[in-house]
From TrEMBL:
Protein name: Glutathione-dependent peroxiredoxin
Class of enzymatic activity (EC top level): oxidoreductase
Domain Thioredoxin: 2-168
Function: Thiol-specific peroxidase that catalyzes the reduction of hydrogen peroxide and organic hydroperoxides to water and alcohols, respectively. Plays a role in cell protection against oxidative stress by detoxifying peroxides.
Entry keyword annotation includes Oxidoreductase: yes
Pfam families in the cross-refs: Redoxin (PF08534)
InterPro entries cross-referenced by the UniProt entry: PRX5-like, Redoxin, Thioredoxin-like_sf, Thioredoxin_domain
Amino acid sequence: MLKVGDRLPAATVYEYVEVEGNGCSIGPNPVDVSQAVAGKTIAIFGLPGAFTPTCSAQHLPGYVQLAEQFREAGVDEIWCVSVNDAFVMRAWGRDQGVAGKVRMMADGSAEFSRATGLTLDLTARGMGVRSARYSMLVQDGVVQALNVEAPGKFEVSGAQALLQQAQALRRR
């Protein structure tokens, strides 16, 4: 499993962009993780699924609400990663009002989740392999903070906890 000090693995996630621009089609567009994080500070949080209760009521909304404070703490982008397709992630993002605040990254085949070792096997519940619930702070591709939840918990990966870590990192 990924740990603090590790470089993010090479992987591709997908994003559905609401507005066409900069030569990108509307979607889904592949995002090379290694290229996208280069030279940036990124707050990444992973969760088991779009439109699920805890993810929709607590996890994603916290990052949307604190997006400006993350920027003030030196975070260039916030990514939400889930093992869903880009169309579902776009619909969920629209429903949650994430525009301009959180990038909704689809890991439909769990490529990124498997490469980081941050998976949760929900096969017995009919959901297959999913992303674990976590948050991390990444600078230029290197993990600076990582908060992984125990299965079924939401205690350490919320927006407020990662924001405090981003603020502490900025003070260093």
